[in-house]
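Inputs:
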Amino acid sequence: MSQQNSVLYDVPGPRQRRITLISSLVATVVVLVGAYFLIYRPLSDKGQFSMELWGPLVDPGNENFSQVWDRIGLGLKNTLIAAALAIVSSLVVGTLIAVLRIQLKSLARRRYTGLATPVAYLLRGLNVLLSAVTRVCVEVFRGLPVVITIFFVARGFPEFGISWDNLWYLVIGLTIYNSVVIAEIIRSGMEGLPGGQAEAAAAIGLSPLQTTRMILLPQAFRIMLPALISQLVVVLKDTSLGFIISYEETLNIGKQIIGVLGNPIQVYVVIAVLFIAVNYSLSKLAQYVQHRLSRGRKTAGTPAQNPPPVALTSQAEGAGGGVI
Amino acid sequence: MSVLIDKFDVFAGGFWLTLQICVLAAIGALILGAVVAVLRISPVPPLRAVGTAYVNIFRNMPLTVVMFFAAFGLPALGSNADFLRIPGLDVVFRRLSTDLPYFRFALIALVLYTAAFVCEALRSGVNAVPAGQAEAARSLGLTFGQNLRYVVLPQSWKASVVPLGSVIIAMIKNSALVGFFGVVGDLSQTADQLTSAEGYAFIPVAIGISIGYLIMTVPLGALLDRIEKRQAVAR
């Protein structure tokens, strides 16, 4: 931040400093006055700052305080359970999809010369078919909104006679979406590695699967760690969609509290603060890890590796949306 | 499968409404995001703080919460979002001037949320311009504004296109949420309506809705891939 700014403008001289100081003061006054007249006044006119509405959330002496926070605690717990299950399962499934796609790609070059011609053609046809199927699956599930995925899972599974807990619908819906996103992150990480890595592995006699498992995957995980942590933020945000299938996560609990106490703005402020606190620290962690990784690379004497652009965009997308 | 043909106008209507929301929200988010990005790189510290706070707040909050804020907060602020009834624009986008404010609320929430990501995409583009460019411009005596206008922004634009595109794709997908916030008739609400209220078979409806979203997201994603590959070659 600071270094980028110093690039865009000179170190300020006395006159520039004066101008900056004056405009800072003016800007502060404008922002504060604007906030006062446009936000504070209308809200306080409607009594949104009264203790009646805030009390149950912030005043430990209030009769409802402990009950409200018990419920919010339950909601948080459910949110975290869903997020943890979703992230673990999407990591596992995503890695499997990435490995499968890489394997299929490397098998596509094989001609199966040792086998009879029809068998060889059959194997190659199977290979092409499988890679087409995985490709289509990835594109389709990456292109669908995660809300819709969750909604389809919750509506569709009972149609086939599978009725589970709402938690599992949410987890499966999140997993379907996030596993293909993670698969793409890991795959672009593996393909972004220098070609010499795979060649060296092949030269010392590792099979394609061994190459992927022992050489490519660990390095891809390492490079893609920041992107993966950002994806965790996305999953955490997306658990809030559980409210559409009435899973009892934080937002849904918030709605129940609002139903009883009638203080929507206050409850949502508290929930927003909780989400922002957790996600902000996770984003900071991702930044820190990225920083550490790029530093570690330099001291190890190998050229610093930046994640390939695909990873960065999927990060942006994830953060946006898959975001939600 | 007959529901796809019988109710084709419903699907098409849902698609059209979702497309309207996406176009309007994209325009709004690009404008607001550019403003926030300017705030974030401006030389005035309080403005920078406002920009940073904005991005951190909206990027770390679920869109669901932003929507609830729009739905409960704006009425509390005494606004029905009537300022969005822009004359001329509401001829094409007729939902802007309906009496029920939910379309406008959902639009505002989507714009506020997406703008934070647009800002980050633009800023990452500015960061991608080599420092020497801006330094050379400064040593020529260009001011901050001239520096941005003639040297940094034209180059950063190239680096921003792909991230911006993924932000827009994400926004299209996020727009599915508005159907659950009282906006009647968009694709996701259509899915709910047809399966639960009108009792159509689930699978055909799901296929129809999926196609509706994929028409918007997949070509855009393919286009971005192409741009990205061409840029990689150009470098």
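Chain B has one domain: 2-234. Flag for discussion at group meeting.
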